């Protein structure tokens, strides 16, 4: 993929997940094996002066995802995304499974918000049962919730359709610094001497306000 650096998972039991980081963005990726056999890649990226934590997750269909690694209640600039294989009526399934219950619990006990709901476009066509479902979820910390846009893209040759999540962060504003006088560093004795010399040079006779103003400006 041109312009991106691949970061494949190198765990012994990894199920070939990986991620790409754009070349102009500084980032680090490491494997997190705490929830095996759930595969987790943890990326830390810096963009426009902000640090983001992104967890890419694949949970096998027969496995019960254990989110014990999410042991905080409040997260900032954090994104979880992947194929969780979690079932819940909250995102359109007719049943629950253990993974779905665990994800529901996360959304109830932390500030992490699941973006998908029962009205979200499905991402998987189960050909054997001819059913549509949403195993692919995107979860954001609440500080990013009102700064995102999400859409399901067209088929790219997989049985899953990709989710594209875009974050809208304001550009850093640069303000022009105004020049200010530092009166504490002024040489007041020299100022007085210069002012006296220039102002006494103005002839007392004649009405010449322009000359007076010009010499006053030279003093300053």
Q: CA-to-CA gap between the ends?
A: 62 Å
Second rung of CATH, namely the architecture of the largest domain: 4-Layer Sandwich
Radius of gyration: 31 Å
Counting DSSP E segments of at least 2 residues, the number of strands comes to 12
Unreliable segments (pLDDT under 50, ≥5 consecutive)? none
Reported by name, the CATH topology of the largest domain is Deoxyribonuclease I, Chain A
The total count of helices amounts to 3
What is the CATH C-level name of the largest domain? Alpha Beta
**Would you identify the CATH H-level superfamily of the largest domain?**
Endonuclease/exonuclease/phosphatase
Question: Helical amount among residues, as a percent range?
Answer: 10-25%
H/E element sequence: EEEEEEHEEEEEEHH
Pfam families: Exo_endo_phos_2
Protein name: Selectin protein,pol protein
InterPro entries: Endo/exonu/phosph_ase_sf, Endo/exonuclease/phosphatase, RdDP_mobile_element
GO molecular function, one term: catalytic activity
